[in-house]
Design a protein that fits this description.
Blueprint: H1 3-34, H2 42-77, H3 93-98, H4 106-113
Helix pairs in contact: 1-2
The protein binds zinc ion.
Length: about 120
């Protein structure tokens, strides 16, 4: 991978990281703000609860992506970025442009998602 590609992917990763941090702090504020709302009827409370659960799920999956982004940024510093953690082959640049925090090449990713297809 050339330096120009690496620099642009790094930029995307940092941008994504900021986006996630903003989104997560907003979601957390949303949860805390709820404690101040006056008690509504039961249907309102139920729908508020399911919204809260959605926030938690969102934050949990965002945290995983954020971890992967942080890992990718560390790897860039160590000059180890772009290698598959499964087979150590280089991950295709086309794939990294779509998912800059990808840890696995397409083959390893597919195998981990569909273990039954493994031959
Ligand atoms: Zn692989």
């Amino acid at each position: 991978m050339n330096k120009k590609d690496l620099a642009s992917l790094k930029k995307i990763l940092i941008q994504k990281k900021m986006d996630f941090l903003n989104k997560m702090s907003k979601a957390q504020r949303g949860i805390y703000d709820d404690s101040n709302t006056s008690v509504g009827d039961e249907i309102d409370t139920a729908s508020q609860n399911s919204e809260k659960e959605m926030y938690f799920e969102l934050v949990a999956s965002d945290k995983m992506t954020l971890d992967a982004i942080n890992d990718a940024l560390v790897k860039i510093e160590k000059n180890a970025y772009g290698k598959c953690e499964g087979c150590s082959n280089n991950i295709l640049l086309e794939r990294l442009k779509v998912i800059p925090w990808a840890k696995y090449c397409i083959q390893c990713q597919e195998e981990s998602e569909n273990p039954k297809n493994k031959k």
